Amino acid sequence: MSQPDFSHDGIRTARGTAFRYLFMLCALLSILTTVAIVATLLIDAIDFFATVSPIEFLTGTRWSPTNDPVAFGVLPLISGTLIITLGSALVALPIGLLTAIYLSEYASERRRAYLKPALEVLAGVPTVVYGYFALVYVTPALDTILPLSTFNALSASIMVGIMIIPMVSSISEDAMSAVPDSLRQASYGLGATKFTVSTSVVVPAALSGIISSFILALSRAIGETMIVAIAAGQTPRMVDLTDPAGMFLDSIQPMTSAMVQIGTGDIVGQGAAYKSLFAVGLTLFVITFVMNLVSELVASRYREVYR
């Protein structure tokens, strides 16, 4: 019968084995949690689609799960989500990219040490604060210029855009900082200016990271709940693409806001209206999953490897 090894090497080996299994358990727990969430969505969504046609759900242009006549067309919610995403992209992507260029190429080490953490503080602000700020301050300020509704897509888009700026700037700045200085020095040696080096050398070299930051930030914007629930309103409507002003000036209802309304409403727990919450959630999950998958494919396709 073998005796336990209580030597220093034996204890170190046992400790390493214990930590390995602990880390594996944590990884499995994360995977199982994800699988459980997806399974829950699928089970209740399948029950919903047993009473409502998937074609009607995906192609319907009217969303009214609780009012007669009942309708479960998800297109108004998808259009509302896309409008918020588009508006936030117009705010966050250029500002975030320009901020990343400044932090990576222009700011001194000391200034970067203060500015980057200060910028990332925005990511720690509760989203409900953003929502009330949009409703109480941004909408009245914009209303002096534009004929806004109390609840509107413009204010919500601006605040969602501000919320995801740290994600765009931080990931993009990390990608730019990973570009070797030899590329910069070679460009300077050819007589290029700092602006030319930044925009024509560094940004293309870090393109995979920049695009990934864009897609991940937009995925975050698509899944945002509290800002749109507070500031955008709860009016499910098909957005008229021929009326750019009307797209943002009136109230809309993204998918996340509709889920909040259903989940907090006075509805039957096993009815079609309640189970539509899971169908909308599954649709939202598929959209964000596809965007994250595209982000990974883009990053792997255009990733530059430097030696």
TrEMBL record:
<keyword id="KW-0592">Phosphate transport</keyword>
<keyword id="KW-0813">Transport</keyword>
<dbReference type="GO" id="GO:0006817">
    <property type="term" value="P:phosphate ion transport"/>
</dbReference>
<dbReference type="InterPro" id="IPR000515">
    <property type="entry name" value="MetI-like"/>
</dbReference>
<dbReference type="InterPro" id="IPR035906">
    <property type="entry name" value="MetI-like_sf"/>
</dbReference>
<dbReference type="Pfam" id="PF00528">
    <property type="entry name" value="BPD_transp_1"/>
</dbReference>
<keyword id="KW-1003">Cell membrane</keyword>
<dbReference type="GO" id="GO:0005886">
    <property type="term" value="C:plasma membrane"/>
</dbReference>
<feature type="transmembrane region" description="Helical">
    <location>
        <begin position="192"/>
        <end position="218"/>
    </location>
</feature>
<keyword id="KW-1133">Transmembrane helix</keyword>
<keyword id="KW-0812">Transmembrane</keyword>
<keyword id="KW-0472">Membrane</keyword>
<protein>
    <recommendedName>
        <fullName>Phosphate transport system permease protein</fullName>
    </recommendedName>
</protein>
<comment type="function">
    <text>Part of the binding-protein-dependent transport system for phosphate; probably responsible for the translocation of the substrate across the membrane.</text>
</comment>
<dbReference type="InterPro" id="IPR011864">
    <property type="entry name" value="Phosphate_PstC"/>
</dbReference>
<feature type="domain" description="ABC transmembrane type-1">
    <location>
        <begin position="78"/>
        <end position="295"/>
    </location>
</feature>
<dbReference type="GO" id="GO:0005315">
    <property type="term" value="F:phosphate transmembrane transporter activity"/>
</dbReference>
<feature type="transmembrane region" description="Helical">
    <location>
        <begin position="277"/>
        <end position="299"/>
    </location>
</feature>
<feature type="transmembrane region" description="Helical">
    <location>
        <begin position="150"/>
        <end position="171"/>
    </location>
</feature>
<feature type="transmembrane region" description="Helical">
    <location>
        <begin position="70"/>
        <end position="103"/>
    </location>
</feature>
<comment type="similarity">
    <text>Belongs to the binding-protein-dependent transport system permease family. CysTW subfamily.</text>
</comment>
<feature type="transmembrane region" description="Helical">
    <location>
        <begin position="115"/>
        <end position="138"/>
    </location>
</feature>
<feature type="transmembrane region" description="Helical">
    <location>
        <begin position="21"/>
        <end position="50"/>
    </location>
</feature>
